[in-house]
Design a protein that fits this description.
With about 725 residues, the chain is α/β, with parallel strands linked by helices. It has 3 domains: about 120 residues; about 270 residues, no CATH class; about 270 residues, Alpha-Beta Plaits (2-Layer Sandwich), CATH 3.30.70. Helix content is about 40%, strand content about 15%. Strands 15, 16, 17, 18, 19, 20, 21, 22 and 23 form a 9-stranded mixed β-sheet that branches. Helix 4 packs across helix 9 and helix 17 packs across helix 21.
């Protein structure tokens, strides 16, 4: 036999391991992609609130609208020059500029105190034929002209063209020697990872962020960019790292922890006006935005745009770059938990799922799953750095583990239900299922009708057959053909099969009032009519015995069995106790106990001594009359093992010769004289009752009749 405990342990281990493996596979294949919607919300919740190492300079409303983007380039150059001189560590011009500039147009040199623009205009020189030869304006020769000391700390986005013009043309001849060998161009590209939403910063060496961090932290630069296990590989095989974002700002801010400075202040014609603002930007790296902060250009879709309950704002490109710089220097990139901690989490949840699957119901499992989800979300939201917890992978472990246990429970439940239906009477099953969880059945007193039927000659039959398989087949065929009608048609409750004996009872178990006469009448009618039909089926089975088993049992043995096998039925009524039978901590059976069972067994045995198939004891008069059945009084008998006597009756159909009115009357006269002591002049007993007459005379010789007309039987 299988070791059930070992099987259970194996199933639990298999469920736990498969759940754990599922989570690990999902985490390996998808990473935290399935958790973006949660992580985005968590990152918005733990958004960056300060730019400690960087700031932005923007084109503001104080620069007149008459100044175009190209015409404003000298303003940005002047701001850069002053920033570097004031202690800023580096400047990045986030603009695509063409090397081929239009020198013959005016350029803004600075902003006057009254808000007007000081222009650098092209000059006209005399030419032949009294014509004007238009020369480049001073700034038109080099729109980004700045002091050579500022050039090494200045970088610009890739140029709009790939022409071979020398780079210094934008910065003037004097800057040629200051321009690095690899040039001033750095990339400002965004990196993504199979999604249009920007969540990563580019770690490439040619990126503006890389150069600006190098400007800001020359001593710590290498350690800041040291590869981490949590670094990722984004699209186009570019190394990247998760970024911590700040909420987008669409206005200038010269106060607070995140500075967006108007270029009109830094490029003022009056240096004194610029000094106060320049002091705010000391030791910072600066990104210059050539558009107004509220212009819808260079906007990036980020978590701030898509996150649930987020601000639903797009992030300006320069602000995304600043957040990238701050993420690198502060080393506060959102991180997943360490691998070992993730495995501890996965294993713990796998164990929890199995334990929960064993002890909790489906509703409780869902609530626990919701609790785990909330806990994981809290870890994402409230841990300042380790925010990228594997929510979906962890939940998949829980639900796969618990789901497997639920499936096992359902499978076992279906099997148990099938077994329950096969081995427990439907009425008992319904009564037990109506109990509340953890409520045990309490024994109760109820009124019942008990029917017992036993095979005559069963011991001899088993001795003749010898083969246990044949005996079992015979008994199962017999019960299938006969007793099954009692519960299928007459709603009888099976109490037990004991060898060849079958015991059924009828009781209104679900009713509080056990003394209702109408309920009793219905029970009695079902029991009596069931007994009549049971007896007819028994006779039919015995008649077909020879044909049924001619190929399985030898003719001689079959003839002997056919000659001796028969059955009797005993029916009683009275009060019984229904409750749990058996030791409390071992296998129990819900059954009935009481005098009606003992009496039914005794009177069933009396059918061997009388020419009747069914003997009843109890007040069945109303049920008998309404069912059209007949009875014949056999006498008042005190069966062995019982103190109180009972009047016993033979039960049968009215079309049976044994229950004709004349025969019943003749028998009543005969038995009455026997009971009154007039033995010498007994009337003639009907021939159909010869067996009954012989039994009574035998009892008389054994002196079993008392003076009060009660038969005191000394044998079972």
């Amino acid at each position: 036999m299988l070791n059930l405990a070992a099987v259970k342990k194996s199933i639990l281990l298999l469920c736990g391991c498969s759940a754990l493996l599922t989570g690990v596979i999902i985490d390996t294949v998808f990473g935290n992609k399935l958790d973006y919607w949660i992580h985005d919300s968590a990152l918005v919740f733990q958004q960056r609130t300060a730019w400690k190492y960087s700031a932005i300079v923007v084109l503001d409303d104080d620069v007149p609208y008459s100044v175009g983007r190209k015409q404003a380039l000298p303003l940005f150059a002047k701001a850069t020059e002053r920033l570097i001189a004031a202690g800023a560590k580096g400047v990045f011009l986030d603009a695509r500029v063409s090397k081929a500039q239009e020198g013959k147009m005016p350029y803004a040199q600075c902003i006057e105190t009254d808000g007007s623009v000081r222009w650098s205009t092209p000059e006209c020189s005399a030419a032949g034929n009294n014509q004007c030869l238009l020369n480049n304006s001073e700034s038109g020769n080099a729109p980004l002209k700045m002091d050579a000391t500022a050039i090494p700390f200045f970088r610009i986005a890739p140029y709009l063209d790939d022409k071979d013009e020398p780079e210094f043309l934008l910065y003037d001849w004097e800057a040629a020697d200051a321009i690095p060998i690899d040039g001033l161009n750095v990339s400002d590209r965004l990196v993504t990872k199979n999604t249009p939403i920007a969540r990563w910063l580019d770690l490439s060496e040619d990126h503006a962020v890389h150069q600006l961090v190098k400007f800001s932290q020359p001593d710590k630069f290498l350690s800041l960019y040291k590869s981490k296990p949590t670094d990722e590989l984004c699209d186009l095989e570019r190394h990247c790292r998760r970024i911590r974002l700040s909420q987008p700002i669409y206005e200038t801010k010269i106060k607070g922890k995140r500075l967006i400075i108007p270029v009109s202040l830094l490029a003022s014609c009056d240096l004194v006006i610029a000094q106060d603002t320049l002091s705010l930007l000391k030791d910072k790296v600066i990104i210059i935005q050539t558009a107004a902060p509220n212009e819808s250009t260079d906007l990036v879709v980020t978590a701030m745009t898509t996150a649930l309950l987020g601000p639903s704002l797009m992030t300006p490109g320069p602000q995304y770059l600043v957040d990238s710089i701050e993420t690198i220097i502060n080393q506060d990139s959102p991180q997943p938990p360490p691998y070992w901690l993730k495995m501890v989490l996965f294993i713990s949840i796998a164990i929890i799922s199995i334990v929960a699957g064993i002890f909790l119901g489906q509703a409780s499992l869902l609530l626990l799953g919701l609790g785990i989800f909330i806990l994981l979300c809290l870890l994402c939201f409230y841990n300042p750095i380790t925010q990228l917890w594997p929510v979906f992978s962890t939940l998949s472990i829980y639900f796969v583990g618990a789901g497997q246990l639920v499936a096992v429970h359902l499978f076992v439940g279906f099997k148990e239900r099938k077994l329950t239906k096969q081995y427990i009477p439907e009425q008992i099953h319904s009564m037990l299922m109506a109990l509340k969880i953890n409520e045990s059945f309490k024994s109760r007193r109820c009124h019942a009708v008990v029917l017992m039927s036993d095979l005559a000659g069963y011991t001899t039959v088993t001795g003749l057959l010898k083969e246990p398989g044949l005996i079992l087949e015979l008994m199962n065929d017999y019960l299938e053909e006969t007793s099954v009608v009692l519960h299928k048609k007459y709603n009888g409750i099976l109490e037990a099969y004991v060898g060849d004996l079958v015991c059924y009872y009828w009781s209104n178990l679900d009713k509080e009032d056990q003394e209702n006469p109408k309920d009793h009448l219905e029970m009695y009618k079902k029991a009596l009519n069931g007994a009549i039909e049971l007896r007819e089926l028994q006779k039919q089975f015995f008649l077909t015995l020879q044909e049924r088993y001619k190929d399985k049992i030898d003719p001689e043995t079959l003839n002997k069995i056919d000659s001796i096998i028969d059955a009797g039925i005993g029916i009683t009524t009275g009060n019984v106790i229904i409750g749990n039978l058996g030791p409390e901590k071992a296998t129990q059976k819900l059954g009935i106990l009481g005098d009606p069972l003992n009496l039914a067994a005794r009177i069933e045995g009396l059918t061997r001594l009388f020419n009747t198939d069914i003997i009843i004891a109890g007040d069945f008069l109303g049920a008998i009359e309404s069912s059209g059945l007949k009875t014949r009084r056999l006498g008042i008998m005190e069966v062995k093992g019982r103190v109180l006597p009972e009047t016993l009756y033979a039960l049968g159909r009215s079309d049976d010769e044994r229950f004709s009115a004349s025969n019943i009357a003749a028998w009543a006269q005969w038995i009455e004289q026997v009971e009154t002591g007039s033995h010498e002049s007994l009337p003639v007993c009907p021939s159909c009752y010869k067996k009954d007459e012989q039994t009574i005379k035998d009892w008389l010789t054994r002196d079993l009749l008392s003076a009060d007309g009660v038969w005191h039987l000394d044998k079972k």
